[in-house]
Amino acid sequence: MLFNNENIKHVAVYLRLSRDEENLGIEQVLANHRQTLIELCSQNKWSYELFEEVASSSTIINREQMVKLLDRIQQDHFDAVVVMDIDRLSRNEYDASIIKRILFETQTYIVTPYRLYDLSRDDDSLLLGITSLIASGEYKQILKRMRRGKEYAQKQGHWTNGIAPLGYSKDPKTKKLVPNDRAEDIKFIYSEIIKGTTVPDLVRSLNTMGLKTREGNLFHYNSILRIINNEAYKGTIISNRTIGKYSSNIRPKEEWIIVHNAHPAIIDEKTWETANKIVNEYSFKAPRSKNKIYPTSSLIYCANCGKVQGNNYHPHIDKYYIKHCQCGNRSFYYNSALEVIKEEVLKHRETLLQTLETLEEGKEVNNTEYKKEKLISRLNKAKRALQRINYAFEEGDYDIVTYRERKAERQEEIKQIEEEILALEKEDKTAKIDTLKEQIKAIDNLVGKWEFLDGEGLSNEQVNRLLHGLISGILWSYKKGAESPTMRIVYK
User: Pick from 333, 351, 399, 449: CA 20 to 30 A from residue 244's CA?
Assistant: First the structure.
């Protein structure tokens, strides 16, 4: 199409696609658009510069070529911007207004294969505004459909969270995760953490063995943390957790999409929970003077004021002491206190064995799983109802007041059911037996020599981790005038 406008000599040709809208392949569609716009420039004898990118229209901040183009326009490099359609500039109503203002202030025309827009003319400005508004509405509808489709896929257990994590591949047919030959590496990482290996030691071990991350890089501290914290390894998919793709803001938990048993688990849930607790509750960084880990780090508390009782090293006598508390709780030789703690913890094994024997002998018909299944069924039904409420609101079937009332009712129901499930799990006799066996195993691991006391044996970090699995805290008291200190160990 020829445009009789002598003011246009040099133009910017802007090409953008966010997806394959014509099912020809993005490269082919871009090539077609490029050819059309270049021919348009040739027909009108305009010189041009090409700006081309594959990017979403969600925001211009992440569109490098658009940012560059706007910068050049503000420097009066171009007489017009040539695009296939107005919505190629932006479907975001906020960004569209910014682009429109810059084009208006610089007296830059917009040219499509069908029309020239002169923003200094009221009718063109109005038409552009209406066209942009329609494009914005279409974009919101597209996003809504895409989100709805993604949510449906996620609830079917399909992997939609990008590249499959280390140890998994995405099955192109089922669209679900399946373990691959790196699954054994994941099992090794979890087993080492549970065994008591520190993260820095595990990193060194993995790198020494020549194992690489999913991207082919060396392992680092954060690489291990990401693996241990990834729910996918226990067969669970969690999505819709954050607000926005790159945001750290967390949505309310009732809005998360959680799918259990979405794909084969590499790590059983109990192992995952244990490793996760170890990594997230305790410090595993290499010991330094300011954060040295002792066998009882973060375990000894002042019985008077409740503050954590740390340790002090006296180099002139080469001895460690429990710190003097500001409330008046006195210091004491650490080795002596630690020997008493070790002795008491090992004695606690008998108490655990007796409790375990009582539970196992008194076994009765366990209806916990049956009750849990019924509660989970109710929970899933309530979540589906909440989904239908959201869908009805999106479709305009509910006004905002009705929507909020119904949503609140379902959310409260979901919360109550989840609390019932949690309470049931705590009462589960099988779970209690498993916990007792786990604690007895931890005590068995503590039998023998400790490096701090004996100069060999379990490291301080290993002892600290095992004690944290058994003990909630140790209440320490050595008041002025007392003949000897007292300790009360609070077991989990």
Answer: 399
Helix (H) / strand (E) element for 10: namely strand 10-17
State pLDDT tens for residues 397-420: 888 878 888 888 888 888 888 877
Phi, psi values for residue 310, rounded to 5°: -85, -170
192 strand-pairing partners = none
Q: At what angle do helices 221-228 and 183-195 cross, to 10 degrees?
A: 100
Scan for tokens 């006004």, then name that residue: 399
Whether residue 10 contacts residue 79, with contact meaning beta carbons closer than 8 Å, is answered with: yes
Closest CA to 305 of 290, 322, 326, 320: 326
- 61-89: b (≥16 Cβ within 10 Å) or e: eebebbeebbeebeeeebbbbbbbebbbb
Residue (of 236, 70, 59) closest to 139 by Cα position: 59
CB 308 within 8 A of CB 300: yes
Cβ proximity of 215 and 139 under 8 Å: no
Q: Report the alpha-carbon angle 270-276-281, nearest 5.
A: 125
Exposed/middle/buried for residue 254 (C-beta within 10 Å: 0-12, 13-18, 19+) = middle
Residues 325, 326, 328, 331, Cα dihedral to 10°: 30
Q: How many other C-beta atoms are found inside a 10 Å radius of the C-beta of residue 196?
A: 18
Q: Is 0.85 surpassed by the pTM of this model?
A: no
Rounded Cα distance, 310 and 291, in Å: 10
Chain-centre distance of CA 387, in angstroms?
A: 23
Distance set, CA 37 to CA 1, 72, 112, 391 (Å): 10, 19, 8, 41
Q: Measured at the alpha carbon of residue 270, what is the angle toward residues 266 and 275, in degrees to the nearest 5?
A: 80
Alpha-carbon distance of 181 to 168, in angstroms, equals 8
- Summarised one tens digit per residue, pLDDT across range 123-182 is 777 777 666 665 555 555 655 665 666 666 666 778 877 789 999 998 888 888 999 999
What CA–CA distance (Å, rounded) separates 171 from 329? 62
Q: What is the rounded distance in angstroms from the CA atom of residue 183 to the CA atom of residue 161? A: 19
Residue-wise burial string across 298-331, b where 16 or more C-beta atoms lie within 10 A, e elsewhere: bbbbbbbeeeebebeeeeeeeebbbbebeeebbb
d(CA 448, CA 27): 67
Sequence-ordered list of residues with C-beta below 8 angstroms from that of 18, at least 6 positions apart, any chain: 54, 55, 56, 57
